[in-house]
Design a protein that fits this description.
By secondary structure, the chain is of the alpha+beta class. The chain has three helices and eight strands, in the order βαββββαβββα. It has one domain (about 5-125).
């Protein structure tokens, strides 16, 4: 049986309190804050999984995903900043994933799935579509 593996990182943004942001990001397994030359910060994840933390180290049944933490992310961002998290992954070659999340300082989240975005663009520009998924297809 295969398992899903991915790479996850962010863009760089201005935050209200760099140490608080660092503590927040590094609370997720194998995530490190990174800094751009202009002082903006972001993160990289060295795991092969979506960034996750557990509020109770003895209870691993209720994980908190970083991508679902829009309110917490929003509290760290300076007004006008847009924090972007990108994830690319696969389950061997059964399927490929490309997703992007955007967060603002109000704690709002937007989501784009690469395959869905392409389908919408094809339909808008070329009309009818007969696309199969770029995935393993059993007959």
């Amino acid at each position: 049986m295969s398992e899903y593996r991915c790479s996850v990182r962010s863009n760089y943004v201005r935050v209200k309190d760099e140490q608080a942001f660092k503590d927040f990001i590094e609370g997720f397994e194998e995530c490190d804050m990174v800094r751009a030359k202009d002082g903006r910060v972001g993160f990289v994840c060295y795991s092969w999984d979506t960034p996750v933390r557990y509020n109770d180290e003895d209870d691993l049944s209720d994980p908190v995903l970083l991508v679902d933490s829009e309110e917490e992310i929003g509290r760290h961002l300076c007004e006008g900043e847009v924090f972007v998290i990108e994830e690319v992954g696969s389950e061997k070659m059964r399927f490929l994933v490309g997703v992007t999340y955007a967060y603002n300082h109000k704690g709002e989240r937007l989501f784009v799935n690469m395959a869905d975005a392409l389908r919408e663009k094809v339909a808008a520009q070329w009309g009818a579509l007969d696309l199969t998924d770029a995935a393993y297809w059993e007959e």
